[in-house]
Structure formats: structure tokens, C-alpha cells
Amino acid sequence: MPNTMWHQCLEVLRDEFPAQQFNTWLRPLQSDLREGQLMLFAPNRFVMDWVNEKYLRRIEEVLKDLNGGQAPRVNMKVGSAPRNSEPVSRSEVSVRSSGAVQEESGSRVTEEEKGVAVSAGDNTSVRAKPSNPSYERRPVQVEGDIKHQSFLNEGFTFDTFVEGKSNQLARAASMQVAENPGGAYNPLFLYGGVGLGKTHLMHAIGNEIVRRKPGAKVAYLRSERFVADMVKALQLNAINEFKRYYRSVDALLIDDIQFFARKERSQEEFFHTFNALLEGGQQVIVTCDRFPKEIVDMEERLKSRFGWGLTVMVEPPELETRVAILMKKADQANVKLSSEAAFFIAQKIRSNVRELEGALRLVIANAHFTGSEITPPFIRESLKDLLALHEKQVSIDNIQRTVAEYYKIKVADLLSKRRTRTVTRPRQVAMSLSKELTNHSLPEIGDAFGGRDHTTVLHACKKIVELQETDPGIREDYQNFMRLLTT
Ligand SMILES: Nc1ncnc2c1ncn2[C@@H]1O[C@H](COP(=O)(O)OP(=O)(O)OP(=O)(O)O)[C@@H](O)[C@H]1O
Question: According to CATH, where is 1.10.1750.10 located in the chain?
Fold first, then answer.
């Protein structure tokens, strides 16, 4: 049985399980096939136990089917597959083989990195959250020049985080990390769309670590800050201090890692810091707007390391959670909000929690100034402009109808499994427009197109970007759609 069998098995499982389950438990597994025995390597004990309990039986069945009815023996252990047991990129292999901090190759600082250094300046080190009125900054125990950079928002704790189906796993994993930093989930990689609570959870972990162990060094920063500091350190000939500082913390929290894209020197520096921390048993937590493998212009070896701990998605909250969040936020602001009013707002604002909070703040401010009670008609009036904007927002439905009409095909064709060119290209265009013009995540878009996988959507988006450069017809079509849908 060739070792690609595991990859085929993964393809089958990918279609069977929801993306979050697949990405969290199955995708990080590595395989090694020897003498009819398939060894699966899990990044940590937790993943291993979970897979054993929940998925192993199904894995065996799929392998049996793929192997003409003969089941290979499957065993699991914690660790990484031996070198060359799976097709991995060259850089990954070299990292695995060394298992230690590598010699630095001295990548150049790119123009982009210089740009970040200038724009990040000195005062933007802390992620200001203008939408949160209770935002307070608490410096944590850090040293020297970098002191001003590491702040935790005291308002972002586990207590103030409302749990729901959409964030349950992320919250549980975060709590575990806070209780046992540097333990089984290292690194913790939290990903998901904008305004869904990734930063909140990250700060909650940091705050909890400090609460449990006063004096713990927790460094929180956005990835741009890391880039800016590194460039500055290079300019000032202080790169050793930079390294020493970042490698001395108990926990390093890096927000929005996607901004490392194309910043080669920073990626390299971060890679070494990352290795040093992991080897030292120090915790690394990273947030990103997408799954590690989907980050473009990021080194493979870095992406692969992100998957060594636990990767968890934060999804958009469903209605009940949105209501609970509104009730909690109103309570924190000492405002009485009826559940009817909370439902009304939660039904209207569905994009993300940040917008939800913004809408609530607007309603509260209006009620405060006018002395009115917060009722659905009052909310409707207060949020008039915001709701008008939302109504104007493009829906996937609308995109599908517009694209189908334009190419003279049926919407059902776009959702079907048909693969003829007359259907696949319009489908890719529609997927790409959905990504560009709506707030839906890749898995949601995939679902809306006949239950396709999020990687298919990603592929469609890339393809359309490419075609717009090489095919004037597609470029013109796309521009027409943008005009049709947004004006
Ligand atoms: N489950 C939740 N309970 C309470 N508040 C929440 C929850 N989820 C998000 N929020 C609030 O929503 C706001 C936006 O959250 P946050 O900044 O953590 O989002 P994010 O996922 O990091 O977004 P971005 O990708 O833009 O960085 C914050 O004020 C946060 O407190």
C-alpha cells in the first residue's frame, strides 16, 4: 500500500467531516507506513486521545476500502513522522531533521518590512480597540525598550467572553493553555474571520497566565509590531537584544500573523524565536484570519510549525450566542436590555461581534441622550443608517443570481457537481465575488455552492485573480459584476 494512501484517506475524511473538525483533529496527523503498518503521529496527547476515541474506527474503515478490503494495522503516537515518510517540502524536511534552531541564512529585509517599520511608528504597538469603551491597557512584566509594547487588555478575560457553539472549542483550548502554558497545546493557533473574538481569547489567556503566576512575562503584540521592532533593531544594530527579549518571555502572543506575508526576514526571525520558545517550553499563541496552510506568501516551514500544537477555528456566532453577547455587554454597561430587544439587534446584525457591539453602543448612546426605552422600534430608528447599509450589502444569493443570468445558465448549475467549462468558470467567478463582496468565510461560501470544500473556494479565488491578469474577457466580466453588484 503506497503511503499516498493516507493522503487519499484524508481526502475522503475531508468530505465527511465539518471543516473545523477535520482541520483540528485529522489534518495535523502525519503518517509513516512500514511493513503494512500505518503509524499516525499526533502533535500532542490530547489530539491523539481524541482521534483514537472519535475517528480511528472510521479511519480504519476508509483505509480498508481504499486498500481493496484489506485493513492495514493503524497505530498512533505523539510526535512527528520520520523524515521522508510523507511528501513534504524541502524546507520542512530540513527543519525536521535538525530539530533545533537553525543557522540563520540572513534573509534581506524587504521593502514591505521597511514600510511597516515606518508606519507602525512607536505608538501603535498596542492594538487599540476603539470599539471597546472599557479598553484599558495593563503593562505586563517586561524589560527594557520593549516595555511599552506588551499590554494586555484587562477587559478581555474568560469571564467576559461569552461561550457558544461557534467558539466552544477555541475557548476550551484557550483555557487549557492558560492553565498549563507551554504544555500540550504549543503553539495554539486561533483562526477565523474578523471581529469574532480571537484577540479577546488571546488576551484572556495572557491575563489568566499572569493571574495564576504573577510576574510571568507575557508579551502581546500584533505582527506588524514584531516587524517594526525587528527592522528598528537591525537599523540600531541591536538585533541580539531583540532576540534575547523575545526569547525570554513565558508566553508570546502574536496577533494577526497574516501580516507576516511577504516579510521574509521577519518570518525567518519569528521562525527562530518560535523554535527557541517551543524548545524552552514557553508558550506561543498566534491568531490569523485563515488556516495556516492558506496563508499566502508565508514560508512552508513556518506554516508547518503552526500546525504542531493545536489549531482551532473561531466561527461566526449563531443567533443565540449573539443574543447572549448583547445581554452580557449591556450588563457590563449597566444598561437594561430586554431579551426582545437583544433578539431584534442580533437578528439584524449577523456579520461579527465587533459590529454587534458597535450597534449596541449606538443604541445605548441614543437611549441615553433621548431618555427613551430600548424597544424594537427605537432600535430600528437608532440603527437606521447601519441597517440600510447592511441591506445594501451583497449576498451570496444575489451574486449567484447575477452571475447565472449574465452567463445564461441556471443557479442550480452553479450549485451542481457539473464540471463542464460553461459551468465551472462562472462558478469560480461567483465564488470569488462571494469572497470579495461578502463577509462569509470560505467554508460558508463552499456550503452555499452545493456543499463544496473551502479549499475549492480558495482555489477558485486564486484562479480568478490569475485569469484577470491573463484573460481580458474574464477581467471585463469581473469588472462588470463588481459594477452590477455594488452600485
Ligand atoms: N464570545 C464573545 N464574548 C464577548 N465578547 C466578544 C466575543 N467575541 C468577540 N467579542 C468582542 O468583539 C470584539 C471583537 O473581538 P476581537 O477583537 O477579539 O476579534 P478578532 O477575531 O481578533 O478580530 P480581528 O480579526 O479583526 O483581529 C471585542 O470587543 C470582543 O470583546
Answer: 396-486
Distance 75 CA to ligand 1 centre (A): 40
Predicted-complex ipTM score: 0.99
- Atom 7 of ligand 1, residue of closest alpha carbon: 197
Sign of the CA dihedral with 105 first, then 109, 111, and 117 last = positive
Fold of 319-388: Helicase, Ruva Protein; domain 3 (1.10.8)
Please provide the CATH number assigned to the domain covering 4-78.
3.30.300.180
For domain 396-486, give the fold. Answer: Chromosomal Replication Initiator Protein Dnaa; Chain: A; (1.10.1750)
CB of 200 closer than 6 A to ligand 1? yes
Give 184's DSSP letter.
S
pLDDT in tens, 210-252: 999 999 999 999 998 888 888 888 888 888 888 898 899 999 9
Residue 358 alpha carbon to ligand 1 centre in Å: 12
187 DSSP 8-state letter: S
Cα 316 from Cα 323, distance rounded (Å) = 13
